[in-house]
Amino acid sequence: MDMTLPQPTQQPGFLRRLTAFFWARPTLWLLLLLLPPLMWFGVVYLGSLLTMLWQGFYTFDDFTMSVTPDLTLANLQALFQPANYDIIVRTLVMAIVVTIASAIVAFPIAYYMARYVRGKMKAFFYIAVMLPMWASYIVKAYAWTLLLARDGVAQWFLQHLGLEGVLTAFLSLPLVGGNTLSTSGVGRFLVFVYIWLPFMILPIQAALERLPPSLLQASADLGATPTQTFRFVILPLAIPGVAAGSIFTFSLTLGDFIVPQLVGPPGFFIGNMVYSQQGAIGNMPMAAAFTLVPIVLIAIYLAIVKRLGAFDAL
User: Fold this and answer.
1) Is the pLDDT of residue 3 over 70?
2) Alpha-carbon torsion, ordered 92, 96, 97, 99, to 10 deg
3) Could you report how far apart the first and last alpha carbons of the chain are, in Å?
4) φ/ψ (deg, to 5) at 131
5) Phi, psi at residue 44, to the nearest 5°?
């Protein structure tokens, strides 16, 4: 008869018990993993942003050039003064025009990349589209001031085509303004489109990549012309990509302050106004009030493009 006593079972270690605890509670484990980035986003980012916006209700003393925590709505009311209102409208119109132009230019490039380019050539197109993004933003802006200057490449090219008179007449138009392309609103528009164009091409290309070829074949089998296929099949399915790209072009143009300072006619944009009020004058409450404008405009814009499926294409 075996008289060996049974050995006590080994108790699991702390790490094993902890692993089993979280294995049975995956939601708790996910929350713990998300806690550090959520705290960073909530406390550092949103906290500092809300603090800055709260200062928009502070009072700025023009005589002592000091900020006091006396709450007032004067800064928000000042946004509707004619001079400040013109700045907001000028910035908003430029953001909308740049977004529309970027979509028009980007769509054929994105469509060609998605439907016809394969292998190494597709990699070449990706590099060609993203290469300008690797260069310094300020360098690109300064380079465009030289390209569009009176003796720059653009005017030299138009001279050799015999179009200098056309350029002079074009620059004399009221909505264009400026003696040269580098001091005109059109020059500023061209620089914005060039800089933000990759942000429009890539989302549209990604949306068109997901377009099933069977839909195009079915459209052709049903007797649709190429124009009808583009209008009723391709374009509706590409709208989420266009909307996603427009988020970048619209918001980046809305908050930019370097290009309006280097290219185009005199006149503040929202970004320039924020920089001027906070950096040169020290009027932090007014700068915070101007900062609220793009936040509201972008929130409204996001609500619009969400209905177009923009977030599904990001």
Assistant:
1) no
2) 140
3) 74
4) -60, -45
5) -75, -50
Contact 60, 286 (CB under 8 A): yes
pLDDT at 140: 87
If you ran DSSP here, which 8-state letter would residue 55 be given?
A: G
What does the DSSP 8-state code read for residue 152? S
Cβ neighbours for 142, distance < 8 A, ≥ 6 positions apart: 262
Query: CATH fold of 74-312, please?
Result: MetI-like fold (1.10.3720)
Picking from 97, 96, 101, 79, the residue whose alpha carbon sits closest to that of residue 88 is 79
Strand pairing partners for 60?
A: 67
pLDDT at 313 over 70: no
187 vs 281: which has the higher pLDDT: 187
Amino acid making up residue 193: V
Q: Please write the tens of the pLDDT for every residue from 257-306.
A: 888 888 888 888 888 888 888 776 778 888 888 888 888 888 888 888 88
Nearest to 186, CA basis, from 194, 176, 178, 195? 176
Mean pLDDT over 93-97 rounds to 93
Distant-in-sequence, close-in-space partners of 79: CB < 8 Å, separation ≥ 6: 85, 88, 289, 290, 293
- For 261-293, give the DSSP string: HHSSSS---HHHHHHIIIIII--HHHHHHHHHH
Q: Is the dihedral of CA 273, 92, 312, 211 positive or negative?
A: negative
Q: What is the pLDDT of residue 124?
A: 87
Residues 24-62 have pLDDT tens digits of 777 878 888 888 888 877 777 777 778 878 888 888 877
Q: What is the pLDDT of residue 118?
A: 82
104, 94, 95, 256: which is closest to 175 by C-alpha? 94
Any alpha helices (H) in 116-225, and if so which ranges? 119-134, 137-147, 153-160, 164-171, 185-209, 213-221
pTM here is 0.81
Among 257, 256, 258, smallest CA distance to 248 is for 256
Q: Is residue 250 within 8 Å of 303, Cβ to Cβ?
A: no
